[in-house]
């Protein structure tokens, strides 16, 4: 079972989030549906920071202190909701990620994927 | 700077993702814009697993082996892209999350937030 | 081809958006990638307006003048980007929607779908 | 009030969607929360079709029959859920869009916005 992430840094964040919600009696708002919507909202805010940049500009965004700080803040918000949602569901997101990556390594062996148009680490989308 | 996350579990995932992309010569597809779009795509797939459930059903989704496995897979995909995007940008998402949470604790002190309608740990959205 | 939507209201919006972008020399920012990201960002803002509500509260959201106005504004933004993106791609979104719905009626015949758990008009997601 | 869109093409889609849901007794799944999540899920699928393309490739995506058909299908799905959600909320999305655009024209007068970095038709994001 994955109720407690093995990983110390993630476990620390998960505990802080539990305390934060408990102190404010906010647990009842934290259903998986609500948290998934909040996660999508924060990802939207992250996209908004990058949407008008060229790919090259996006690669340099952290060089601008103000813009970089906003991007970092949105990454933080996305991580918050991913950690909280995963905890409520009893999932360790790092373990889940590693399992998906192992799967992807089989689905996209190097000899067949090198430099190719099929670029997604996740093969869910067969387009 | 945050080029290497302090956290061992996250650092391990970040390294695996670098190797995965390097082996396949996929780095050129991994601009921040593309990775942010991929992240949004995976969050969309996660929402799709929960969208027709009631809040109560969503709280029980992991009890169904098939549905739970799909949810876990999507959580894994979201973590993959968040980790990869953060790495490309040179951001430690756990550190960014902890900083946002500290900020939120000031913005939503317990005495004023207990059980209230203002529930978001992130106060970006004042709407 | 679908360069001009048949539909007068949508065609009017499409023309206004073309004028708006041309007047400001913003066309070069309006690549399909950028517009798709902007669309996702606005959908995120819409979700943010509903994320902490219960399903019942969400059904009453328009009864609150302030909250209802914000929801309407986000719907407007989503429609703006969907119309602009579709126009740039040469797609009539209403025609595309009608075609999908016709497809869905075949994939979900009433006799097999009545009241069932499979609720999505779109059968893309076989989960 | 905006319970019936003025626009014939959109009104036709709205009516078809009402019939589709009524025939299958699916109305109870169509709360604004659920429909907003479904909308986000479909936008995620649309982003997935564009995420690995360069901006130039994305501008040519409709030239490929297979890829173009998938993009058109996703645009259709997004329009379906936007129309259904708007109808449930009693909002005319075309009217809401036109109102936002009028607002934006004031917020971004041509003389101050020409070719500038501030490119969003929607000024919600001042970040």
Automatic annotation (TrEMBL), chains A, B, C, D:
It comes from the Bacteria. One of its GO terms (molecular function) is nucleoside triphosphate diphosphatase activity. InterPro entries: dCTP_Pyrophosphatase, DCTPP. Signal peptide: none annotated. CDD domains: NTP-PPase_RS21-C6_like. GO terms for biological process: nucleoside triphosphate catabolic process. PANTHER family: DCTP PYROPHOSPHATASE 1. This is Nucleotide pyrophosphohydrolase. It comes from Micromonospora sediminimaris.
């Amino acid at each position: 079972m994955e109720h407690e992430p093995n990983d110390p840094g993630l476990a620390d964040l998960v505990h802080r989030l539990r305390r934060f919600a408990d102190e404010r009696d906010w647990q009842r708002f934290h259903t998986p549906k609500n948290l998934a919507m909040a996660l999508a909202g924060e990802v939207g805010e992250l996209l908004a920071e990058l949407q008008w940049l060229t790919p090259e500009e996006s690669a340099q965004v952290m060089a601008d202190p103000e813009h970089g700080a906003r991007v970092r803040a949105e990454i933080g918000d996305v991580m918050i909701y991913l950690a909280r949602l995963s905890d409520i569901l009893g999932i360790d997101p790092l373990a889940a990620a590693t399992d998906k990556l192992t799967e992807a390594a089989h689905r996209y062996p190097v000899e067949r994927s090198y430099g190719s148009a099929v670029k997604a680490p996740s093969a869910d989308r067969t387009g």
